[in-house]
Amino acid sequence: MIKFVLMVNRQGQTRLSRYYDPVELNRRTLLENHVVHCCLSRRKDQCSFVEYKDFKLVYRQYAALYIVVGVTDNENELSVYELVHNFVEVLDKYFSRVSELDIMFNLDRVHIILDEMIQNGHVVETNKSHVLAPLTALDKMADG
Fold first, then answer.
1. Does this model's pTM top 0.90?
2. Which pLDDT belongs to residue 126?
């Protein structure tokens, strides 16, 4: 099961966070700081899977952004790694070459995309067209 998804920049600033297990706000900040430090301090030649406390971290870097996913021990790391890549491909398709600014100024749309892909910590959809269907409908309603 997926416990959380974080998107952070190289400076460690959180751009997106979604928790699928309830975590108190003050503990979230501490958790994010530790997790981000753990992932950002690793070298590029090191594995993108890290054991951290009672769960595993799967992270992937895209330009200046890191996407970090916390998963339970029984989750397949490679499938989560591919899910992260699929998520970025969907963002690229919607924003046509997504950037950190796209995420900052369209956070609601990024959350819709993420929620279409993951619900209650479980992957429910990976097809790019199906994931983008609600946003396409919203954009059509806004235009016309």
1. yes
2. 96
- For 71-128, the pLDDT digits (tens) are 999 999 999 999 999 999 999 999 998 999 999 999 999 999 999 999 999 999 999 9
Query: What's the first-to-final CA gap in the chain, in angstroms?
Result: 40
Who contacts 68 (Cβ-Cβ below 8 Å, separation ≥6)? 5, 6, 7, 8, 35, 36, 39, 57, 58, 59
Q: How far is residue 44's CA from residue 40's CA, in Å, rounded to a whole number?
A: 10
